[in-house]
Amino acid sequence: MAMGRALVKFENLHELKRLCHWGPIIALGVITICSTMAMIDAVLWYWPLETPGGSVNFIMLINWTVMILYNYFNAMFVGPGYVPFGWKPEKSQDCVYLQYCKVCQSYKAPRSHHCRKCNRCVMKMDHHCPWINNCCGYQNHAYFTLFLLLAPLGCIHASFIFVMTMYTQLYNRISFGWSSVRIDMSAAKRDPLPIIPFGLSAFAASLFALGLALGTTIAVGMLFIIQMKVILRNKTSIESWIEEKAKDRIQYYHTGEIFIFPYDMGSKWKNIKQVFTWSGIPKGNGLEWPVKEGCHQYSLTVEQLKQKSDKRLRSVRYQAVEDYSGACCPMTKGVKTFFTTPCTEEPRIALSKGDLILATRGLKHWMYGERILDSTTDGETRVRGWFPRNCVEKCQYDSELDQPCSNCYSDQCTGAERCGDEKGNLMV
């Protein structure tokens, strides 16, 4: 099995720093509270070693905890797998079908995307998950999905124990009268006496753990359903979004194209086997993928290039009319701006009066775009993020087509050339 590979072999000890993040701290805290309280309450409700049923119940609780933590840490530390620095396809002519990542100094392999959090191009990237403080992708997709399945199942078992514990422990302490209800939180009148006294604090702790377990069951269970929907079609969450944008692009321009997702094997079982294997090691190398008949290895990347070009054509240039510090919830930009800040981990960009920004999408009080750097700026790092709409005003030019290219600043640069490198390949 892959346990030794995943949990023992750390190529870099700095990976342990992933635990120092609010996501893993909260996730492991919930697992610890629910598991610990479930085991304590199991002792109160069922003697673990006195009956076969009690023993099985207690062993199952330990088993849930071990399996949940095993898949959780695998998803975190095995990681998604990254495109090697400097990677390019074997055939140089295939470079025209791929985007080039300036940060990784390599071409983006099919199904890979650059993650701003990890600062790497991730193979078969699904999303960056704050709960594991890592990306979900090619190598850890199965571990992550199994964690999403096991966590609700374990919480359902724990919830049953919490309910039964509170019921059995309070059964002899509640007396119903015609005019009042009396609850006695002293030791239960039970022979033999419980090993652990069930007082008011224990009742409150069990009730709190029950709330955490039920909330986790609903929230994580919904995430599991979402993941299984994309896995059954051999997609990722990002690829589902790309497919939707492809349909919108075709409908907007009335091109008459028919976009076919190339990685759907046509069978749900075959699609599942692309993610889940008995060895725990996914099929392939994460760089090349089997495609359905009628498609080729770069069918999806070609669609991405079209969408990138269309995004540039429809982007709008704005100029900052006042400074913005980059705060998540700015206090000085109005009440509506403060309370409608985007609920996302995407960054905010600080603006100075006079800065030029290329906006690609927006909300009522916020916009998302890229700050245009002048030709004298050192480095090639792009600055993208959200900024308040009332800090900018639209330039007299309606779109980027009416302005010099933000990469080469040439009035003659148009269309797909606008954001390309010296070979004409679109940049990240």
From TrEMBL:
Compartment(s): Membrane
Gene3D superfamilies in alphabetical order: SH3 Domains
UniProt keyword list: Acyltransferase, Membrane, SH3 domain, Transferase, Transmembrane, Transmembrane helix
Membrane topology: Multi-pass membrane protein
Domain SH3: 313-397
InterPro entries in the record: Palmitoyltrfase_DHHC, PFA4/ZDH16/20/ERF2-like, SH3-like_dom_sf, SH3_domain
Domain of life: Eukaryota
Chief subcellular location: membrane
Entry keyword Cell cycle: no
Catalytic activity: L-cysteinyl-[protein] + hexadecanoyl-CoA = S-hexadecanoyl-L-cysteinyl-[protein] + CoA
EC class name: transferase
EC number, as in UniProt: 2.3.1.225
A cellular-component GO term for this protein: membrane
GO molecular function, one term: protein-cysteine S-palmitoyltransferase activity
Transmembrane segments: 21-47, 53-73, 142-167, 195-226
PROSITE patterns: DHHC, SH3
Domain statement: The DHHC domain is required for palmitoyltransferase activity.
Entry similarity comment: Belongs to the DHHC palmitoyltransferase family.
Name of the protein in its database record: Palmitoyltransferase
Organism in which the protein naturally occurs: Alligator mississippiensis
